[in-house]
Each structure stands twice: as structure tokens, then as C-alpha cells.
């Protein structure tokens, strides 16, 4: 089973696996690893991958021979199924995360039964993402089943905040067109002779429009191009504020009467 999560702009693929190794033929075991490898190979290298599962194998407390994928903090003795897990991790450029932190035995053992205590549940992640893993341990007081213990991994994902672009195109400040600015703009357009053009209609329109824009830039000015968080603040004035407050008071009085 695979679940894809997106956290802070980071895609994380969580894969759940279960290896039925006990008493099965080698061919069946190879089919399991080939199937799991097919899942991992199909995931983009830009995305995070976490594999969690019961692999029915013991990687042991020593990293000998697998120092690149075994952190050196395991439990018990290694067996053939554990070797298969370590070989898969190496082939997939992953590591066994719950072998990377020194813990007490009860925080390493994932399976407790009347026969004994072992470590068969593991969490794997890509080696390049090792820095994201802050801790992995067993919670002895929490049981997933009557025998399996809860295995928890702490992963820190940096939240990527995408800033909005602050730059923009400069524009004529048309909202300043009021009062004396209106007559000043008309005068400036007349001085530029915008209405004295002749020729084709499209040419006359283009020349007139350019004259109006040029005059408006001189009279009204241009915006800086930066985007303000509150682009509508220009209309908020003492007069508007007083009317809004009066509306609130009137609404409260009406509500009391009802």
C-alpha cells in the first residue's frame, strides 16, 4: 500500500510492506523484493520515500558488511531474512532508520511473544534524506497487536513558504483623478494637441490615446510597481470610518429591538 502526502510543498510517499518469509520458497521471497523494488523505482527521485513494515527478518546489532545502510544500533543477531532487507536497502540507496539511534533494548525490540523478544519491524528512508530523520524508537506501552509494538519515527519537514512576487508593472495613478487634477489634465491634453491629429481613424486614436497617457503620467504620476498588501487602502478615510461605525451602531440597536 502506498500513500502520498504533501507537506510544506514536499511530497512524501509512505509505503506499507509485509514480508511473508517464514516457511516460503526462495522464489516467493524474491517476488516480494522485486515487487517492492518496482514500487520504489516508480517514484520520482525528487520525492521523499518512507517504507514501513514487518519484514520478518533480523538485521542484528552489528553493521558489519552493511555500514552504508545499517546505523549500528540494532537488536539481536542477523539472519538471512535480515540480510535480504539490508541488501534491498543498499540496492535502493536507502537506510534502515531504526538502526541509526542508540536506544535501550525495549525501545529497539518491535515484537514480543512468549517465545522471545525480537526486532522484525523496520522503517526505511532514502539515504539522502537522513538529515530529516530526528529519532526512531519503539513505544513499549503501545501495542499495535498483542505482540507487535508501535514503532515511531520523527521526521522534520521544512515548510517552504512561497513568497508572492512584490514587483509589478508601473501604472498611471488614475485614482488621483479628482478635483483640480481633472482640469489640469484637460489643460495638459489640450496643450499637446491631441485633438488636432488627422488621417486614418486607427492612427488618430493611437495618437490621441498616447497624448492622454503622457499627460496623465505628468499630472497623476506613476505607481512604483510594487504590490501593496492592502491595495484598497486609498479609499479608507475618516469619513468612511465614521459611516462604518454608525452602521454598526444602528445594526446593534436594531438587533436589540428584534
From TrEMBL:
Signal sequence extent: 1-17
Keyword S-adenosyl-L-methionine (UniProt): no
UniProt keyword Transcription regulation present: no
Domain of life: Eukaryota
SUPFAM superfamilies: DNase I-like
Sorted UniProt keywords: Signal
Stated name of the protein: Endonuclease/exonuclease/phosphatase domain-containing protein
UniProt source species: Cuscuta campestris
Amino acid at each position: 500500500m502506498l500513500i502520498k502526502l504533501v507537506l510544506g510543498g514536499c511530497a512524501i510517499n509512505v509505503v506499507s510492506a509485509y514480508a511473508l518469509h517464514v516457511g516460503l520458497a526462495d522464489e516467493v521471497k524474491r517476488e516480494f523484493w522485486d515487487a517492492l523494488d518496482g514500487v520504489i523505482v516508480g517514484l520520482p527521485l525528487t520525492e521523499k520515500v518512507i517504507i514501513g513494515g514487518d519484514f520478518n527478518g533480523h538485521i542484528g546489532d552489528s553493521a558489519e558488511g552493511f555500514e552504508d545502510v545499517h546505523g549500528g544500533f540494532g537488536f539481536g543477531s542477523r539472519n538471512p531474512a535480515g540480510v535480504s532487507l539490508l541488501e534491498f536497502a543498499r540496492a535502493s540507496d536507502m537506510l534502515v532508520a531504526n538502526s541509526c539511534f542508540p536506544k535501550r533494548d525495549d525501545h529497539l525490540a518491535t515484537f514480543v511473544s512468549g517465545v522471545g523478544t525480537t526486532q522484525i519491524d523496520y522503517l526505511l528512508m532514502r539515504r539522502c534524506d537522513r538529515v530529516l530523520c530526528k529519532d526512531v524508537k519503539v513505544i513499549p506501552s503501545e501495542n499495535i497487536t498483542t505482540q507487535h509494538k508501535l514503532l515511531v519515527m520523527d521526521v522534520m519537514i521544512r515548510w517552504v513558504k512561497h513568497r508572492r512576487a512584490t514587483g509589478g508593472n508601473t501604472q498611471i495613478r488614475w485614482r488621483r483623478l479628482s478635483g483640480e487634477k481633472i482640469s489640469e489634465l484637460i489643460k495638459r491634453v489640450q496643450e499637446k494637441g491631441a485633438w488636432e491629429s488627422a488621417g486614418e481613424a486607427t492612427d488618430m486614436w493611437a495618437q490621441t490615446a498616447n497624448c492622454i497617457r503622457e499627460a496623465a503620467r505628468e499630472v497623476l504620476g506613476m505607481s512604483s510597481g510594487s504590490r501593496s498588501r492592502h491595495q484598497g487602502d486609498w479609499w479608507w478615510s475618516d469619513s468612511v470610518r465614521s459611516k462604518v461605525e454608525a452602521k454598526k451602531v444602528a445594526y446593534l440597536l436594531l438587533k436589540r429591538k428584534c
